[in-house]
Amino acid sequence: MEFVRRELKGALPRPDWWLVRPDEIIAQCENVKKGKKEIAAYTPGGFPVYVITYGPERPVEREINWPSATGSPRPELYTLPGPQCLMIIGGVHGEEPEGVMAVLNLMSLLETGKDLAGNPNPELVKLAENYRLILMPCINMDGRAISPDCYVGGKFEDFADLVYTRLKDGTQLRWPQLKEYYPMPMDQVERLGTYYNSEGYNIQLDAAPGNICTEEAKAILRVAAREHIDLFVNLHSDGCEHIIVSASLHYPVNIETCKAIRKVWLKVRGYDPETDYCPSTQTDIDNAVELATGAPSFTFEFGLTSAPSHERLVDEGYGILEAVFRYGVDNVFADRRKIAGKE
Ligand SMILES: [Zn+2]
């Protein structure tokens, strides 16, 4: 597969700090000094998938996995000593660079005190210092490599033409019908959409135990389990910004935690605290991470098609990060005794 970036007709030119192309992501990860970098996987297209960590490493004093902990009298043994550990990932879908941008801006703030546009955010940096952070700025580097830089100023029909898979019979596989295939039927594909890695896998849905198909999803699960993470935040993009509270296959305690984080987020963003949400019934990588670690997990969607500017999208990123960081100052993300039903 050839990796050529698809240009979105009518999109505003990106600001010079909107650095979300694979070579730019790689350069930023390679430049990390205060954090630690590792390559957790390579995509089928040969791109590295980075993990960048900040904050003290937490010693694993006892080998135990989460399922074993849940059956034991002391599930709290799974929680590692030290600061709470947040895992934040972006770019699971190639055409959604906003989460990539948010993670890269956070890295830049932690490295230099300024984000990529040169703006300081000392409050966010101070909040971030309360945690061990596991950051994966861009999971689906293959999809990113063929996606536009951003949607701002574009039209949905032009965007759809670029990001949805076109079959040889002329069918365009749109959301949500695109989920009627896993992976994409590559022998019938005329042009693969940008959701997928170059083998046609939607990494968000690569979550069936015993049949995890992509190195990208394996890396997410392996790193989450290795770090015994306490919260998993998966950054995506959609019509307007919202937190998806999943209704299926999550620990009831964790669903409540995600609702509580959402309350803080509504406040941070100045939205009506009673704003309703539509629970998702999809089973996906968020569930798999929760099964592997016991940690609450949720997806945040940026307002890809509604944001009038790149700056607005940056603000949305700071909003969700601030809400998560603030929540954890006063609360435990993963009270593993409660999660495992021991009290
Ligand atoms: Zn997505």
CATH fold label: Aminopeptidase
Oligomer designation: single chain
Output the structural class.
alpha/beta
Bound molecules: zinc ion
CA radius of gyration:
19 Å
Output mean pLDDT: 97
Shape call:
globular
Strand content: 5-15%
Instruction: Report the total helices.
Output: 11
Q: Order of helices and strands, N to C?
A: HEEHEHHEHHEEEHEEHHEHH
- The amount of helix comes to 25-40%
Largest sheet: 7 strands, mixed
Account of the protein in words:
The protein is an alpha/beta fold and 343 residues long. The protein is globular and about 55 Å long. Strand 5 (165-167) and strand 6 form a beta hairpin. It is 33% helix and 15% strand. Helix 3 crosses helix 10, helix 7 packs parallel to helix 9 and helix 8 crosses helix 10. The chain binds zinc ion. Zinc ion binds at residues 92-93, 96, 236.
